[in-house]
Automatic annotation (TrEMBL), chain A:
It comes from the Bacteria. It holds the Pfam family CbtB. This is CbtB-domain containing protein. It comes from Azospirillum doebereinerae.
Automatic annotation (TrEMBL), chain B:
The keyword Transmembrane applies. It comes from the Bacteria. Keywords: Membrane, Signal, Transmembrane, Transmembrane helix. This is Cobalt transporter. Residues 49-62 have a biased composition (Low complexity). The chain crosses the membrane at residues 88-111, 123-141, 153-174, 181-200, 212-231. Residues 1-21 form the signal peptide. Residues 46-67 are annotated as: Disordered. InterPro entries: CbtA_put.
């Protein structure tokens, strides 16, 4: 394995990790909104979904 | 950027499909039970308290014209078509957002692990997601109906999250770690929230019949299992090529 191919492999895995963590971060943010956020309007809108997905709701 | 775009597209498709499917199934499984339970939710306290408790336990309908109602319908019970429609679409949107959120998390972890996936292996990932995010939290905190007594909400949310993350992390380590010590530690990690114990209320009873609560638990878990199976399979099918190219690209 040459230095260049090691560098490109590292760059590829770094880019992969950034993409993966970006997806997980955005996913967690969406789940926080649907499952955990407490403002009344969000709670009311997501109410039946929260109960059906077994999130603690009330 | 191309990788992120394809990753997000895969999660979006999987999330929208599974969230929509869950919405359809929920309308016949969990939602009717939620509406039924809300009939037992007391919004305003009864004026005469002495007879209220016995009336509540026999679940008599509060429809006598001469007596004050023992309880009123919960505020969430749709009282008009417009209200029912609004409740339906906000639930569908919430389900789709939950689907996309879970799909983003699963697709991200799939990419991090870098193992080849397809629809069949994706189904295994879906089962893992079900165990982590539905079954493990439900062992300590069974799916609740409106009106059920619960411990402090923040404490339950923290325990729910701990149970889900420990189970998910534990399963990933068991599936992908090569070191036996790590696998052993992962099993302990998954069990830890259950050894600590979920927060429970001092008096756990709700006003509705226990059969309703039991039926709701099986309905919620069954619906979640379908949701996760679909989410995992679609994620696997769509992430296969993304993962292959992500690790080949210069």
């Amino acid at each position: 394995m040459t230095t260049r191919s090691i560098r490109t492999t590292a760059a590829t895995s770094a880019r992969t990790a950034v993409a993966a963590f970006a997806a997980m971060l955005l996913g967690s943010f969406l789940l926080y909104g649907v499952g955990f956020a407490q403002p009344q309007q969000i709670h009311d809108a997501a109410h039946d979904a929260r109960h059906s997905f077994a999130f603690p709701c009330h | 950027m191309d990788l992120i775009r394809r990753l997000f597209t895969a999660a979006l498709v999987a999330g929208v499909l599974s969230g929509t499917a869950a919405s359809v199934v929920q309308q016949t499984t969990t939602v009717p039970l939620i509406l039924e339970a809300e009939k037992y939710e007391v919004v305003t306290p009864p004026p005469a308290s002495a007879t209220a408790n016995t009336a509540a336990s026999t679940a008599a309908p509060a429809g006598h014209e001469h007596a004050a109602p023992v309880r009123q319908l919960g505020e969430g019970v749709p009282e008009s078509d417009g209200e029912a429609f609004q409740r339906l679409w906000t639930t569908v949107v919430s389900n789709v957002i939950a689907g996309v959120g879970y799909a983003l998390v699963i697709a991200g972890v799939m990419l991090l692990m870098g193992q080849r996936v397809d629809a069949r292996r994706g189904l295994l990932w879906g089962i893992g997601g079900f165990v982590a995010f539905s079954l493990a939290p439900s062992v300590g905190l069974p799916p609740e109906l409106p009106g059920m007594a619960g411990a402090d909400l923040a404490a339950r949310q923290i325990w729910w999250l701990a149970a889900a993350l420990c189970a998910g992390g534990g399963m990933l380590a068991v599936a992908f770690a090569k070191n036996r010590l790590v696998i052993g530690a992962a099993v302990v990690l998954a069990a830890l929230p259950h050894l600590v114990g979920a927060p429970h209320p001092e008096s756990p009873e709700g006003a509705f019949p226990p059969e309703l609560a039991a039926h709701f638990v099986t309905s919620a878990l069954g619906t979640a299992a379908l949701f996760w199976a679909l989410l995992g399979a679609v994620c696997g099918a769509m992430m296969g090529r993304v993962i292959d190219t992500a690790h080949d690209e210069p």
